[in-house]
Specification:
The chain is an alpha/beta fold and 531 residues long. It is 30% helix and 19% strand. The protein has 2 domains: 4-40 and 98-144 and 381-530, 3-Layer(bba) Sandwich (FAD/NAD(P)-binding domain); 153-377, no CATH class. Helix 9 (288-305) packs antiparallel against helix 10. The longest helix has 22 residues, at 436-457. 46% of the residues are buried.
C-alpha cells in the first residue's frame, strides 16, 4: 500500500475547517479534510435540538472572507436557527466545491510526528493512513460532549437523547412526560419549545444561569444591504472590536452615570436583547459592585416574570457574577415556568441518585417517571476533541501532557514540542470570547501566511520556543488577573489542585490579540523555531 502525502490535513469540517480547506487549497497546497460526521457543519450539524439558534446576530456570525459569498446569502432572522446555519454552511461548502476534499464519517485516531521526514503520520477510524506536513485541528472548543454518567441509565426503558448530539430524526415530544437535565445555554433554548409540546416537562437544575431575552426578529435587510456594499471594510471594522462582533461596544464605567441613566441603560439592553447585558459598563467585569447592580437587575426581571416566588428565587443565580459564565440568551425561558405542565427540581439540594427503569430517582427517594430524558450536560471544553486522539510527538508525549497547571501555548495556536501542529481558536487566543467565524478566519489566514513564509524560505518545521510560550501564557494570565471571571468556577477557568485558577481564553480582546499576532508575523515569526 502507498500512503498518500498531503501538505495540510484539516481535522473537522465546521466553520473553521471549511474555510481552512478553501484558504489552503487557494494557496496551492494539497489538502485533505477529515470529518467524523456524515456532513459539514460541526456544532451546527450535531446541535439540532428544539430551539437551537445562534446567540449572536447572523450578519456578524458568518464568513466575511468573500464579498461574493456574503452577497449571495440572505439571512431570514436576526439570530439564525440551527437549520438555517446548517444550510448556510452547506451552501458555502458547495459554492467553493469543497466536499470532494473531505472524507466524511472518518475520525482521526492517531497522529505521530516523524522528525526525520518532518511529517505527521496519521491513522483514521477507517484504517486508512496518510502523511502530512502540517496538521491543523479545526475541532472547535465545545464539540466533545459530556456523556451522561448516571447510575442505572442502562436499565432505563424510556428514550434518552443529548442536546449536543440530537438525532437526525423526529424525537417524539407531544404527549410525553419529558425530563431535561441541565440548565445551560442549550437547555435554556430547548426548554420553552419542549414545554409547548410535552404532556409534562420536569427540569432538573443544579446551578441556575443568568439568561436574557434574545428579542429575535426577522433579519434587518436594510442593514444587510449596507454591509454588502462594503464587506471588506466591515470585516476590518469587526476585527478592530473587542469580540469581532457588534456586541462588546465601548462603554463608560457605571460611576459615570446617575441612577436614572443606569436604569435606562439596563432597560434598553433588556428590551433590545442579546449578549450586550454582559458589557453594559466598562467596569462590569472587574468591579463587583457594578456587577451586582446588573445581576440584581436581571434577578428582579426573573422575579417579575415567574409567578411562583419560590420557583422564581430558585431560578435566580447567586453563586456567580453575571457574565463570568457565558450568558444565556433565550426566548420565553422564564415565562415557561408559569405553565401548568412544567416543574422545576433543584438537584443541588436533592441530587439525582440514579436512573430507574421508569425515570429519575432523587437522593431523598422521590421517583419521577418520564418517557423521555434530554441530557444537556455541556462539553469537555477546548481540547476535548483532540484529547481523544492519540497525538504523539517524537518523545511520545501528548500535547496536553505539560498542561497540568494550565494550557501553555503561543498565541493560542501552537505548543512547544509539537512541530507543524496548529489548533484553531485554541487556549490562549480570544477563542470563545469572540465571534468564532471571524476568529477562525483570522487563525486560518495567520497559519496560511506562516506556511507560505516557510515554503518561500526553505523551512520544513516550526514550533514555539519554551521562552516565548511562557511569555505569552504569562501575558494571558496577567490580562485576566483583575477580572471577576477568574474567581468563578466555569469551563473557561482551569483549576489547579492548590485552588489557583488559570483563565484559558485571552480576555484582552480580539483587536489587542490580533495586533500582537500581526506583529509576530511582520517581524519574521520571533518566538518560533523555524528549521
Amino acid at each position: 500500500m502507498t500512503t498518500e502525502t498531503f501538505d495540510v490535513v484539516v481535522v473537522g469540517a465546521g466553520m473553521g475547517g471549511i474555510y481552512a480547506l478553501h484558504r489552503y487549497r487557494e494557496q496551492g497546497l494539497k489538502v485533505l479534510g477529515l470529518e467524523g460526521a456524515p456532513g459539514v457543519g460541526g456544532v451546527w450539524f450535531h446541535n439540532r435540538y428544539p430551539g437551537a439558534r445562534v446567540d449572536l446576530e447572523s450578519v456578524d456570525y458568518c464568513f466575511y472572507f468573500s464579498q461574493e459569498i456574503f452577497n449571495e446569502w440572505t439571512w431570514t432572522e436576526r439570530n439564525a436557527s440551527q437549520p438555517e446555519l446548517l444550510r448556510y454552511l452547506n451552501f458555502v461548502t458547495d459554492r467553493l466545491d469543497l466536499r470532494r476534499l473531505i472524507q466524511f464519517e472518518t475520525w482521526l485516531t492517531a497522529a505521530q510526528w516523524d522528525a526525520e521526514s518532518a511529517e505527521w503520520a496519521l491513522t483514521t477510524s477507517s484504517g486508512a493512513q496518510f502523511r502530512t506536513r502540517f496538521l491543523v485541528m479545526a475541532t472547535g472548543n465545545l464539540s466533545a460532549a459530556r456523556a451522561p454518567a448516571f447510575e442505572g441509565l442502562d436499565s432505563y426503558k424510556g428514550e434518552w437523547v443529548r442536546t449536543s448530539h440530537w438525532p437526525d430524526r423526529e424525537v417524539k415530544i407531544a404527549g410525553r412526560r419529558v425530563a431535561v437535565i441541565g440548565t445551560g445555554s442549550s437547555a435554556v433554548q430547548a426548554i420553552p419549545v419542549i414545554a409547548e409540546q410535552a404532556e409534562h416537562l420536569t427540569v432538573f437544575q443544579r446551578s441556575p444561569n443568568y439568561s436574557v431575552p434574545a428579542c429575535n426578529r426577522p433579519a434587518d435587510l436594510a442593514r444587510l444591504d449596507e454591509i454588502r456594499a462594503r464587506v471588506p471594510e466591515v470585516r476590518k471594522e469587526l476585527f478592530a472590536t473587542v469580540g469581532a462582533s457588534n456586541v462588546m461596544l465601548p462603554s463608560a464605567p457605571m460611576a459615570d452615570y446617575d441612577e436614572a441613566g443606569i436604569q435606562a441603560r439596563l432597560e434598553a439592553q433588556w428590551n433590545s436583547g442579546g449578549h450586550g447585558m454582559s458589557y453594559l459598563f466598562a467596569d462590569q467585569g472587574r468591579n463587583e459592585e457594578t456587577n451586582f447592580t446588573v445581576a440584581e437587575f436581571v434577578r428582579n426581571k426573573i422575579r417579575s416574570i415567574v409567578n411562583d416566588p419560590e420557583v422564581a428565587e430558585a431560578l435566580c443565580p447567586y453563586d456567580h457574577a453575571i457574565g463570568t459564565r457565558r450568558l444565556c440568551v433565550d426566548t420565553n425561558y422564564y415565562a415557561t415556568y408559569n405553565r401548568e405542565n412544567v416543574s422545576l427540581v433543584n438537584v443541588r439540594d436533592n441530587p439525582i441518585a440514579r436512573i430507574s427503569e421508569t425515570g429519575i430517582v432523587l437522593e431523598d427517594g422521590q421517583s419521577i417517571d418520564v418517557d423521555l430524558i434530554v441530557f444537556a450536560l455541556g462539553f469537555h471544553p477546548f481540547t476535548g476533541a483532540w484529547d481523544r486522539i492519540d497525538i504523539r510527538n517524537e518523545k511520545g508525549e501528548a500535547p496536553t501532557d505539560q498542561w497540568r497547571q494550565g494550557p501553555k501555548t503561543l498565541l493560542g495556536l501552537a505548543t512547544n514540542g509539537f512541530p507543524n501542529f496548529f489548533f484553531l481558536t485554541g487556549p490562549g487566543s480570544p477563542s470563545v470570547l469572540a465571534n468564532l467565524f471571524l476568529m477562525n478566519e483570522y487563525h486560518v489566514d495567520w497559519v496560511g501566511d506562516l506556511i507560505a513564509h516557510m515554503d518561500s524560505n526553505g523551512y520544513r518545521a516550526v514550533e514555539p520556543t519554551v521562552k516565548a510560550q511562557e511569555r505569552w501564557s504569562a501575558h494571558v494570565a496577567e490580562v485576566a488577573a483583575p477580572t471577576i471571571r477568574l474567581k468563578t468556577r466555569n469551563y473557561m477557568v482551569h483549576r489547579n489542585e492548590d485552588g489557583s485558577g488559570v483563565f484559558i481564553p485571552y480576555i484582552g480582546g480580539f483587536k489587542r490579540y490580533a495586533d500582537q499576532a500581526d506583529a509576530v508575523a511582520a517581524e519574521g515569526y520571533p518566538g518560533f523555531i523555524l528549521s
